[in-house]
Amino acid sequence: MGLFKRKTVLPADIEWLVIGLGNPGKKYAFNRHNIGWMVAVALCGKHKKPIMSSSNLYYHSILRIESKLILVAMPTTYMNNSGEAVSAIKESYNIPVNRIVVVADEYNFPVGKIQLKSGGGDGGHNGIASVIEHLDSNEFFRLRCGIGKNFSAGEMSDYVLSDFDKNEIEERDTMINKAVESIETIVTIDVPRAMSLVNSGDLWDKIEENKKNVNSLN
Fold first, then answer.
1. Coil, strand or helix at 60
2. Among residues 33, 47, 60, 125, which one is catalytic?
3. 23-69, pLDDT tens digit by residue?
4. H helix intervals, the chain
5. CATH class of the domain comprising 4-217
6. Number of Cβ atoms within 10 Å of the Cβ of 112
7. Is position 47 annotated as part of the catalytic site?
8. CB-based contact 73:58 (threshold 8 Å)
9. Residue extents of the structural domains in the chain
10. pTM (two decimals)
11. Chain segment 126-177, per-residue pLDDT in tens
């Protein structure tokens, strides 16, 4: 399958679990509903780690961000049953709920906007609802990625299962990069500061400033 290679996962001291929500299969790969999968794939790609399949519940990769060992997973149980996979991973690796980040689409946000939050309800998102149900807790982090709300009453299901428009691709890709940087931030610094940097947009200013400083030294 190319990117997806089978490999046995060895026991590891996993400190964070990052879940990219979406549906398996080529026809769903670039749907708005699969933005969580896209972010997970981009995160693994940035850190040059292969995505493997070790069960019928999820694809996964293990990577290190600074000193933190992270398990990145993409449930293959389909969106509405995402919690089944998340619960299984949590139990296998004994990961606390407050060390889980779930990346999901948010139609109440325009394409490009992201928000990091902890706790709360499911907001009408079936994948989040499933995770809450199976974990019996809502105290995990959600990285909400905007997909826009360009649909009429009764059209939401078709909309979230549609691909991004051509004129949204650039903004989508920028959002994916920001989501990856958000994940890297939350797992490496204290959570309140990470949330403040992401939700205020200050994180991107700091990243640009660091890039300029590096370039000035070259």
1. strand
2. 33
3. 999 999 999 999 999 999 999 999 999 999 867 899 999 999 998 99
4. 35-46, 82-93, 126-135, 156-160, 169-186, 191-200, 202-217
5. alpha beta
6. 17
7. no
8. yes
9. 4-217
10. 0.91
11. 999 999 999 999 999 999 999 999 999 999 999 999 999 999 999 999 999 9
